[in-house]
Amino acid sequence: MSDGQPFKEDRKKNIPYTELSSHFKQWNLGEETVKIPNPELLLLQKIKAHRDRTWEFDNQTIDPVRSEYLKSKIWKDEYDIRHLEHRVKDIGTLWEIADKHKCRDLIEDTLRNLRLSQLIR
C-alpha cells in the first residue's frame, strides 16, 4: 500500500494510506471483504484533500473550467468534513494520527477556519 501524496503546501507532512491498516472497520460483502476507514481517519483524509485542493486553487494558474471544478470539490470537502465531525467518537485517535505524522498544525488550522474548534484539544 502506497503512502500517498504529501500535503501540497508542506511536502514533509502526510496522512499515509498505511494508517488504514490500524484504523478501520471491516465489512464482509459476500465473498469480498473491505476495510472502511474509521471516522477519525476519514476526517483527517478529507481535511488533507480540502487543504490540497485549496492550496492548488490559491497557488496555481488554472483555466476557468478547472477553477470551477476545484471550487466545487472544495465545497464538497467542507460539506463532508462538517458531517464527519459528528461521527468522530475518539478525538484522541484523531490527534494521535495527526501528531504521528506531524500535521497537527494543518489539521487545527482547517478546523478553526471551518469553525469546528470543538474538535481541537
**How widely separated are the two ends?**
31 Å
Strand content: 5-15%
H/E element string? EEHHHH
Number of domains: 1
Overall pLDDT score: 92
Shape: globular
Our Rg estimate from Cα atoms comes to 15 Å
Point out poorly predicted stretches.
none
Number of discrete helical segments = 4
Can you offer a commentary on this structure?
- The chain has 121 residues and is mainly alpha-helical.
- It has one domain.
- Helices cover 51% and strands 10% of the residues.
- It contains 4 helices and 2 strands.
- The protein has helices at residues 39-59, 64-84, 91-100, 104-113; strands spanning 24-29, 32-37.
- Strands 1-2 form a two-stranded antiparallel ribbon.
- Strand 1 and strand 2 form a beta hairpin.
- The model has no long low-confidence stretch (mean pLDDT 92).
Summarize it.
Helix content is 51%, strand content 10%. The chain is mainly alpha-helical and 121 residues long.
SSE blueprint and pairings:
Blueprint lengths: L23 E6 L2 E6 L1 H21 L4 H21 L6 H10 L3 H10 L8
Antiparallel strand pairs: 1-2
